[in-house]
Design brief:
The complex is a heterotetramer, with two copies of chain A (288 residues) and two copies of chain B (379 residues).
Chain A (H helix, E strand, L loop, with lengths): L10 E4 L4 H12 L4 E5 L7 E2 L4 E4 L2 H8 L3 E4 L3 H13 L4 E4 L6 H12 L4 E3 L5 E4 L3 E4 L8 E8 L2 H13 L4 E6 L10 H9 L6 E6 L5 H12 L4 E5 L6 H6 L12 H10 L3 E2 L6 H4 L3
Parallel strand pairs in A: 1-2, 1-5, 2-4, 5-6, 6-7, 10-11, 10-12, 12-13, 13-14
Antiparallel strand pairs in A: 3-4, 8-9, 8-11
Helix pairs in contact in A: 3-4, 6-7, 7-9
Chain B lengths: L4 H11 L6 E4 L2 H11 L3 E5 L12 E4 L2 H13 L1 E2 L2 E2 L3 E5 L3 E12 L4 E7 L9 H6 L2 E5 L8 H9 L8 H17 L2 E12 L4 E3 L3 E4 L8 H5 L3 H13 L3 E4 L4 E5 L2 H13 L4 E6 L6 H13 L5 E8 L4 H12 L8 E7 L2 H7 L6 E4 L2 H14 L1
Parallel strand pairs in B: 14-15, 14-16, 16-17, 17-18
Antiparallel strand pairs in B: 1-6, 2-3, 2-6, 4-5, 7-8, 7-10, 8-9, 10-11, 10-12, 13-15
Helix pairs in contact in B: 2-3, 5-6, 9-13, 10-11, 11-12
Classes of the chains: A alpha/beta (288), B alpha+beta (379).
């Protein structure tokens, strides 16, 4: 059980007949995620996976027929804004964009549409939401971790696998693992998830994995100080990157890198979070 | 990606933002001919994409014809931060009374464009302290509603700009926003915007950065990518859909995802080494992006070993293995490979790689990096 | 006393130093309308009308200094959208655009901004709001009519003068006269004002003056039938225009003229309104 | 204002909407030469702005070269609803399987653009009944958010359009919307949009109406106004900033505001007469717009009397009086004037007119119209 996705969730996939969409939908079926339908414009009326999953032309058609309330997107970057707006209009509650590398101004339009709606966007460039034993709404590797009471919120997808792997080795299970997305602009930030996790009865401790660039971690640290009572373990990758290197080598946007990793780690320490210096240290910082 | 000043000014000219008369030249003889056409005094401006070209001698005022060729040759010989000067913009020199800064940039945290106006224009205004100390004003722009004149007026009333210039400021800001929007820019900036003695505003410089994620709908910019700036390797990598980060060491790295790139970098530095390159093949990568990336590293003689750190979610590990096999099958590719391969379909992927002698497989990032760094130190 | 404007209203003028703005602002001063300030970009800090009225650069500055809550626009058509959006953002409650001939797509943007705000837009191409003895927020001729308990809502400005003149001749006064605007797209329609007038204690009867084109009168007739208890006298100009003439001669938009004057007059009769066949008949249809 | 088909198609071509190869000709010899270049069969299309040109013989298919000149000459001789044909578009003839209607128009009541798609394209689809009976779909567009592909897809799923065409439909609809927005159109319509045997969509016809209120920012369209369509008088009136409505009677009218125009027209018709023209000088009119309007009516020999019905709110009656005086001062302008002048500054305005012999002043619209109509009947 968890935030955003639970036993009653009904998941659909936008782009279910594409190469990636088909592959990961089939995985979802095999790991017993509650996949109820998908879209592929022009293929409405077909059935995928040996007649198990209906395919629709539009998200609206799929929602009308299946009551889907979570949608996972496997569509090309240029189609992402269109598919997210379609999902918002169709009333999807939780939209997960696995697709990344979405143009910045497209995402600005999406953010504007989100503000006027009740939908939640995870990503773009998110591995999705993993709730062990309930659903793998996205692309988390199967069997990477078991159920438990630690929640993981990570900016990077691959780092979230890395951390889940380390937790699993240490015998720790999770209530939920969320990749908030590692694109220049994403839907929901750390703070949004911290707020949900604070009141989630299935979560006792929180692991937050951040990185360089932007101020999402600083906002999160401030929020932890003010409003989070559950123990938080924070890890920020990129400690050896200097601002000069980030600006030129890992270049996305020079302003974006004004907030250094050091500033972020200090903020977490001040906020009373436990700071993991190395990624391998996370398990021993969790209260056992 | 950054556009050259002459490219940005061409967009300005099309949009109707006043710019001084100018032309591009690729050699000193051309420079002299064009300067005579435009009429002295002229300014020669090295077309390179680095900041600080002025301090490095890349911007020179020419008063008389007899100086033109020599100074042009001096500029063509400059190397600024590893970049050489391929072309010079010859521009009518301007006398002006005052300079301003006007820019629109994408604020990634806000998820909105921001208009910024400062009464301190010029080369120093971008230095952080002077920028913050100068009178300046910012305003978030609603991407749906766009920029409106009254919003520019509101910024202007905060400052000391003469009201006789407000209409020109408004027009230029609106045109700059159109350029920003229609070209998917992340930055469109005029520094400096100057006031002539006739009380006209002119854009003396022009800087436009295009969102590289949007290049699929601006294919013409792809043709104009400057290979001297991005470097041949970065340029090749872009074509394969992967991102190439160049450093100065001997260990070539392939990872999937920025997080894993940062982690791998962190650990290499912690062990007192440095990578030669980190190639991010991103999530959902294919056999071909893996193959191309590995080829790029193998072709580089300064790279002595390759580290591959993949945790597949979207990425199917079987495709990674297939890529490794297809490259290593070629006789000349015998550099040692240090591999960590986990995630979607990892077991079957690792099975297919079992016969490969140049390959060592590890379970964690830490073990992987340690083995690769130790190898380089010992051999 | 009246709707939208009352003794506590504070009126400002956007474009107060322009030819029209100056002329009509001076009239407002002379007829004791509560004019408190105005804008003229670049002239902030000046005082107009012998130091009686302060001039500001922006609407925000004017609102901050004078608490203006009504703004009357005398600006060129191309600047109207900008000035309306500025007034909305500055929190002006009642925006009156005397300027007309505003481009259609500009007004579409304004309508969208209005929907997200609490502001009310009268016009464009409106004579404004006249509340005898309180305020002439716009361009109604001075002394055209006295105070009374009949409210006038008219699409055309000049026809509203015509009707007020006729009422005045008949010794009838008004609680308020409103020109809703005669541009292709306007802010508030007949229905909006009917709703306010129904609950206005100073209004006993309503005169509605419509015209050809659009469906605002049809919506109003339906609303009168369903929700208006006060007597309504309706007059629709253009009875002799045939659709064919309107489409070609008085051409604005052919779809716009699908709803003929006859359909509208019939709708008002069905709704229980008293229909004035000629404009001169209006006074004798009002209950004395 | 309406654009000609060739103008609209040029905008389509720039935007990337597929249109058949075509060129414009202004005489029959040109037509023949161009037709040979394009290759037979071709379609000749009279470039006039009236509907129903097909039924009137303005659209003709030409199979062979020997017919071209004669049929072109026939088209040039046509007069369709008082319009003559100034130019012909010669277009490659197309065979197609199916035709659709795709349009975007400004819904003034909604205050939004609307996208409309119908499976019945062609000449008859605009007739009201057939349009309503055909399968069609509409969708309101949020002007801030613009049109998105999924919205087009949603319309398509309501109909019978083959899914293999959906992407093309989406691209064309988005491009049509860009044209609609960037040109301040009130209508941008493709009727019909046809499917060729190669399963490609082509815009066979193109219709674009520009919002005349927006012409200040589209000055190039002002140059292209077709004087044969608007008539010389309407064209002149536009330049003066007033609106000229032409009828067939002998009474020239000047009013301010559409409401007063309708009322004056209503009353003239009620008295069994008919106006020659109604000029709306709009609110806030100036001396010069009054002067120009009165000159236009006085210069027209078929007009025997002038009626002026002004109720000034925005309009200052003194400026109206000044305009009347300046025109009547000229010796040749002696037509009788019937005036009603009320509103802002009316008393002083009427005083200045007191010496004018050709002028009669009235107090109400009713009295004014009655006197003018009676004069025309009696004289």
């Amino acid at each position: 059980m968890s935030i955003l996705i639970d036993a009653k969730s009904r998941i659909m996939v936008q782009g279910i007949t594409g190469r990636r969409g088909r592959f990961h939908s089939e995985r979802m079926l095999n790991n017993n995620s509650p996949l109820v339908g998908g879209t592929s414009p022009g293929k409405g009326g077909d059935w995928a996976f040996n007649g198990r999953i209906p395919v629709f032309d539009t998200v609206k058609d799929c929602v009308d027929a299946t009551n889907a309330d979570v949608s996972v997107l496997f569509v090309p970057p240029h189609a992402t804004v269109d598919c997210i707006l379609e999902a918002i209009e169709a009333g999807i509650k939780t939209i997960i964009s696995v697709t990344g590398s979405v143009p910045v101004q497209d995402m600005m339009q999406v953010k504007s549409a989100l503000r006027k709606s009740d939908s939640v966007l995870i990503g773009p460039n998110s591995p999705g939401i993993l709730v062990p034993e309930i659903a793998n709404a996205g692309i988390f590797p199967d069997h990477i971790v078991g159920a438990g009471d630690v929640a993981l919120v990570s900016r990077s997808g691959t780092l979230s696998y890395e951390v889940l792997d380390i937790l699993n080795e240490a015998g720790i299970g999770v209530s939920v693992a969320i990749g908030i997305g590692d694109d220049p602009i994403i839907g929901m930030d750390f703070k949004f998830f911290l707020e949900l996790l604070e009141s989630d009865p299935h979560t006792e401790q929180i692991v937050l994995v951040g990185g360089p660039g932007g101020e999402s971690e600083l906002v999160a640290a401030n929020y932890i100080m003010e409003s989070i009572t559950k123990p938080v373990v924070a890890y920020v990758v990129g400690e050896n990157l200097k601002a000069s290197i980030m600006g030129s080598v890992f270049s996305r946007n020079s302003n974006f890198f004004l907030n250094s990793v050091e500033r972020k780690t200090n903020a977490f320490i001040e906020a009373g979070a436990l700071l993991a210096k190395n990624i391998e240290d996370i398990p021993c910082l969790l209260r056992r | 990606m950054k556009l050259h000043e002459y490219q940005a000014k061409s967009l300005f000219r099309q949009a109707g933002i006043p710019v001084p008369a100018s032309m591009l030249a690729t050699n000193a003889v051309q420079v002299k001919r064009i300067a005579s056409e435009i009429g002295y005094p002229v300014v020669l401006k090295a077309q390179i994409l680095e900041q600080g070209r002025g301090k490095a001698g890349g911007v020179r005022l020419i008063q008389h014809e007899h100086e033109a060729e020599q100074i042009a040759n001096e500029i063509f010989k400059l190397e600024i931060n590893h970049q050489t000067v391929q072309s010079i913009l010859i521009e009518k020199a301007f006398t002006f009374n005052k300079e301003y800064y006007l820019g629109i940039f994408s604020d990634l945290d806000l998820g909105s464009p921001v208009l910024r106006l400062s009464e301190a224009g010029g080369a120093t205004c971008l230095e952080k302290d002077s920028f913050l100390n100068a009178r300046m004003a910012e305003r978030q722009i609603d991407i749906d509603q766009g920029l409106h004149r009254y919003q520019v007026r509101q910024l202007l009333t905060n400052g000391d700009v003469d009201p006789s210039l407000w209409k020109q400021f408004g027009s230029i800001a609106l045109k700059l926003y159109d350029i920003y929007r229609s070209n998917d820019a992340t930055l469109a900036e005029i520094n400096s915007l100057v006031v002539t003695q006739q009380n006209q505003l002119y854009a003396l410089d022009a800087k436009i950065n295009i969102d590289s994620l949007s290049l699929f709908r601006h294919e013409s910019f792809l043709d104009s990518i400057d290979p001297t700036y991005y470097g041949w390797l970065e340029h090749q990598a872009r074509k394969y859909g992967v991102t190439y980060h160049q450093f100065t060491g001997e260990l070539g790295c392939i990872v999937n995802g920025m997080g894993l790139a940062y982690l791998t970098y962190d650990q290499i530095i912690s062990m007192n080494s440095i990578p030669a390159a980190i190639i991010d093949i991103h999530g959902g990568s294919t056999v071909s992006s893996m193959t191309s990336s590995l080829e790029l590293l193998f072709q580089n003689d300064s790279i002595r070993a390759v580290l591959i750190n993949i945790y597949g979610g979207m990425t199917n590990c079987e495709e990674i293995a297939e890529g490794i096999l297809s490259v290593t099958a070629k006789a000349r590719h015998k550099k040692p490979i240090f591999l960590r391969l986990k995630g979607t379909n990892d077991i079957s992927a690792i099975e297919t790689l079992s016969g490969l002698k140049q390959l060592q497989i590890f379970d964690s990032t830490h073990e992987l990096v340690k083995a690769a760094v130790d190898y380089l130190k010992d051999s």
